[in-house]
Amino acid sequence: MRLLKHLLKWLAATAILGIVALVALTLIPIRPTMPRLKPLDSTAYWKMTGGYRIAYSRIPAEVATSRPPVIFLHGGPGGYVHSSTIQTLGGLARHGREIYLYDQSGTGLSDRRRPKATSFESHVADFWEIVTRHLGVERVALVGHSYGGELAAHFHGRLSCAARAARPELPGSAAFHTLCPSSSARSTYTRSAISPSSTPRRRYSSSPCAGRTISRAGSRKRSKAAGSS
Asked: What's the predicted TM-score (pTM) here?
């Protein structure tokens, strides 16, 4: 009996020490594994209706044209706009394109939000608020990489007068097309920007080549139009 009591005391003491050690470990700050992101000279911020900020870089067009601005949608979720991407897409400015590249909510230099507040639907709502409230344009051209290609595919499927889809051939390549939203789609997405929970669920599953999905969607719309004529 005495041996059993000593054993129980030893087990209790071990458990207490283990709990104390675990608590101590959780209080020790984790050393960062990579340097903290720093704003670039071109970094600016949009103040969203939800009170958070989204970081972006704008490259002005070098020549005046009527071409719609280009918006870059980066990969992830969890990616960010790298300086090399800004440099690469900056070449479009020579062809009269104004370019916007932004860190999606909760990533890069944009504000962090509650985990459940950031989702595919919230990224959709953010994009629509950026286009309608901050840019105020009727037409945009999208470049979507990886997860950004999924977002681009979503808009291609939802906005009725999307046109000129590119046909990338490599998995993970970007999607590039022009969107000119109809009045009905504009009212739907404006409501979604105010209330992300009302945003329509995505119609496209994850694809290794989201850009190719866009091309097929465009082909289906063209074939239906040809059949009805």
From this structure: 0.64
Q: Which helix (H) or strand (E) holds 45?
A: strand 43-47
Domain boundaries defined on the chain = 1-29, 43-228
Helix intervals (H) in the chain: 2-27, 83-89, 120-129, 147-158, 183-194, 210-228
Domain 43-228 has CATH 3.40.50: yes
Q: Of how many residues is the chain composed?
A: 229
Least confident of 32-36, 81-85, 162-166: 162-166
Q: What digits encode the pLDDT tens for the residues 103-135?
A: 999 999 999 988 788 889 999 999 989 998 999
Q: Which residue has the tokens 């470990």?
A: 25
The residues near 202 (Cβ < 8 Å, ≥ 6 apart) are 120, 121, 124, 150, 154
- Return d(Cα 138, Cα 181) in angstroms, integer: 7
Smallest CA-to-CA distance from 132 within 81, 218, 192, 74 is with 192
Beta bridge partner(s), residue 147: none
Strands 70-73 and 53-59: unpaired
96 Cβ contact list (under 8 Å, min separation 6) = 61, 62, 63, 64, 65, 67
> In terms of Cα–Cα distance, which of 68, 65, 69 is closest to 56?
69
**Tens of pLDDT along 14-47?**
999 989 888 888 888 777 777 888 999 999 999 9
